[in-house]
Design brief:
The protein is globular and about 55 Å long. Strands 1-2-3-4-5 form a five-stranded mixed sheet, with helices on both faces. It is of the alpha+beta class. It starts with a strand and ends in a 20-residue tail after the last helix. Strand 4 (about 70-80), helix 3 (about 90-100) and strand 5 form a beta-alpha-beta unit. The chain has one domain (about 1-125): Gcn5-related N-acetyltransferase (GNAT) (Aminopeptidase), CATH 3.40.630. It has helices spanning about 10-20, 25-35, 90-100, 115-125, and strands at about 1-5, 40-45, 50-60, 70-80, 110.
Length: about 140
């Protein structure tokens, strides 16, 4: 069963988010949601236990490889290790495609780090097509002269 994250289940969701993104605390995820920055969050339950989540967004800016706007964007997806390779990720992607259509989108986009082989393989298995590879840079600029 897939259900949207509400106040009642946001701690369960935040715990799963922390497993995917361990540099962000459970409390930070809850605060981001409270501040309206994570509005499209969904939990997957098996036998009343949350075992996966999907985080979606609508992007109106440029999204690499897309033609239409807005674009439904897969911000994150996580399935507990013992439930992986049991089609739960595929079910969440099918949910995301339906959600995208319901929100007027013709494309679903995503990304992953270049060295995240498991994520890359998952994306390919569920039907994504790689459109580009990039390396991002940053330069610190000393404002004092």
């Amino acid at each position: 069963m897939i259900t949207s994250v509400k106040k009642l289940n946001e701690k369960e969701w935040a715990n799963l988010c922390h497993k995917l993104w361990p540099d962000t605390s459970v409390e930070e995820f809850i605060m981001e949601r409270k501040n309206g920055r994570l509005p499209y969050e969904y939990l997957y339950y098996k036998d009343n236990t949350p075992i996966a989540f999907i985080s979606l967004s609508l992007r109106h800016d440029y999204v690499e490889g897309t033609v239409f706007s807005p674009v439904a964007y897969l911000e994150g997806i996580y399935v507990e290790p013992e439930y992986q390779r049991k089609q739960i990720g595929s079910k969440l992607i099918e949910f995301a495609k339906s959600w995208a259509k319901a929100n007027g989108c013709k494309e679903l986009a995503s990304d992953c780090e270049l060295d995240n082989v498991n994520s890359s393989l998952f994306h390919e298995r569920v039907g994504f097509t790689e459109v580009n590879r990039i390396i991002c840079y940053v330069m610190k600029i000393d404002e004092k002269k």
